[in-house]
Specification:
529 residues; single chain
């Protein structure tokens, strides 16, 4: 965690960089091609939880003072079940999730390199991976964050350059909107799907995104890679500021060059067998010599910023929550550093093997989110309800994985939203039942957690009363900031989008609303502190 002394601007940019991976523009291009701009709500819905993390969970994680989110398990729960859960989550997140994420990032790089150059794809992958592996094992988390800082701005430059050339190739912004609306109907450029304008995405799917998906996934209370950065912050305020910067940069600023490129590709190329290839095909078509090389390098930089993060994070889980906690407890720091480098090598090998068995970045995204969706609520509930125990999370994670995998095998033709609802519904019934049938956490252990974390939730009222702990209304105040933050974020996001799509009056009105919301938010944050 970099000595827990990192400033907000550095870790905020690092958060944005590790999310700005080569797979993100590729997958968003696929969503826009199949569902119009409304399809990006699969991505935008995560902003709802990101704002919640900013004003609620960022402070709680920084107070916890752990190294990984799996370590919080034995702070929150007690007994053998807590130890087992920590071991299980170390493997679940450190190996399975990290390897899957790196696998689809490898796939995205292969699609881009294969689509825009005649270079040997395997050779490019090997060179870039060896380089990122080398500096990650040499410098650890601190080096990851520093390289992220530079790679982020390089990646932004590449995406903006491509968007400019792509829009020009399609005849300009007005030609794009008019051409696509004439060919696919007005729903293709609408921010929200509807029943009456030929929406490319069912409205029911949109409702699932904004009402369920944002809390039913692994990142419901922050996510491992972002939690690690919040834990490295100088203090709680720096953790909050970093998360705030990331949320606005990721969901309202850097996404629009990708969307414009995707819209231009849809107009220029039309329907494609693999719509995710629209992004690299547009690169090959419109970028002149030199600029093409620059943009390819920018995307490789984005690839590296994600791989280094997940190598470091995966090794943190494996060493901190498995190897050091359960296998080799009293070795030297040098031993654990060496073991972490070995763990990175193993993770990299598994990720490469997985990437060879994937064909769609967006499809892999959706499956992995569904795989953990049922347990998402348990990771929120544990902070605010004393009755949650280790079996709450264990039952949620196992049931969610089993149901999602079963649906993938037996009903792969179902809509993603249907799979998500079934997985969440079945899992929620299971984990609530298991919670009520298993004994609660030791009361003294609960009191220790409450004193340290101070969640300010009515769900802890009984524990607070029994141990004479005074609670402040932290939860209520944080939720108020969350609502104002959502208004500010989405007003800014759709204000920018409206201006880019030449809806000037609407865009200016939304930007004004965002500015007012930001002022209210700033005053609220100052009072909250």
């Amino acid at each position: 965690v970099g000595g827990r002394g990192m400033p907000w601007w550095l870790i905020g940019v690092s958060m944005a960089a590790t999310n700005f991976s080569i797979d993100t523009p590729v997958s968003i291009t696929g969503y826009v091609a199949s569902e119009g701009i409304g399809g990006v709500w699969f991505f935008w819905s995560s902003a709802i939880s990101a704002v919640l993390v900013t004003f609620l969970f960022a402070r709680l994680w920084r107070r916890a003072g752990v190294i990984t989110d799996a370590e919080i398990i034995e702070r929150r729960y007690s007994g053998r079940s807590a130890s087992f859960l920590r071991l299980f989550k170390g493997f679940y997140f450190g190996v399975i999730f990290n390897a899957f994420i790196m696998g689809w990032v490898f796939l995205a790089l292969a699609k881009v390199i294969g689509g825009v150059t005649d270079l040997n794809v395997d050779l490019v992958l090997i060179v870039a991976t060896v380089l990122v592996f080398g500096y990650t094992v040499a410098s650890g988390f601190y080096g990851v964050v520093l390289t992220d800082f530079f790679q982020y701005f390089v990646a932004i430059l590449g995406s903006v350059l491509l968007a400019v050339y792509a829009v020009a190739e399609a005849g300009g912004l007005r030609a794009i909107t008019q051409g696509l609306e004439a060919r696919h109907g007005p729903g293709v450029t609408a921010f929200f799907p509807s029943f009456d304008q030929g929406s490319l995405m069912p409205f029911s799917v949109f409702l699932v995104y904004v009402m369920v998906q944002w809390w039913a996934h692994k990142y419901a209370d922050g996510g491992g890679k972002h939690i690690q950065r919040m834990l490295s912050a100088k203090n709680e305020d720096h953790a909050v500021a970093a998360s705030f910067f990331f949320t606005f940069a990721n969901y309202a600023l850097q996404v629009w060059p990708w969307i414009l490129t995707a819209l231009a590709a849809l107009l220029v190329f039309g329907p494609m067998d693999d719509p995710e290839m629209g992004y690299p095909m547009m690169m090959a078509r419109v970028l002149p010599a030199g600029v093409l090389g620059l943009v390819v390098v920018c995307l490789i930089g984005a690839f590296m910023s994600t791989i280094d993060t997940h190598l470091n994070l995966g090794a943190s889980y494996i060493i901190n929550d498995i190897y050091r906690r359960f296998l080799v407890k009293d070795a030297s720091d040098r031993h654990y550093v060496f073991a972490s480098r070995v763990a990175m090598g193993l993770l990299l090998t598994i990720a490469v093997i997985l990437s060879r068995n994937m064909d769609s970045v967006g499809g892999a995204w959706k499956f992995l989110l569904t795989f953990a969706s049922g347990a998402g609520l348990t990771w929120i509930v544990r902070w605010f309800w004393w009755r949650a125990n280790a079996w709450t999370e264990i039952s949620g994670m196992v049931t969610s994985g089993v149901v999602a995998t079963t649906l993938k095998i037996t009903h792969d033709d179902w809509l993603y939203s249907s799979k998500l609802l079934v997985t969440v519904g079945v899992t929620t019934v299971v984990w609530i039942t298991v919670t009520l049938l298993t004994p609660p956490v030791d009361d003294a252990h609960l009191a220790g957690f409450l004193r340290k974390i101070r969640p300010g939730s009515p769900g802890w009222a009984g524990v607070a009363r029994r141990h004479g702990i005074t609670q402040r209304p932290f939860l209520v105040q944080a939720l108020g900031l969350w609502l104002v933050g959502l208004l500010a974020l989405f007003s800014l996001n759709f204000g920018i989008g409206s201006l880019l799509l030449l809806r000037t009056a609407q865009g200016l009105g939304l930007l004004a609303l965002s500015a007012v919301s930001l002022v209210v938010l700033w005053r609220g944050v100052r009072r909250f502190r």
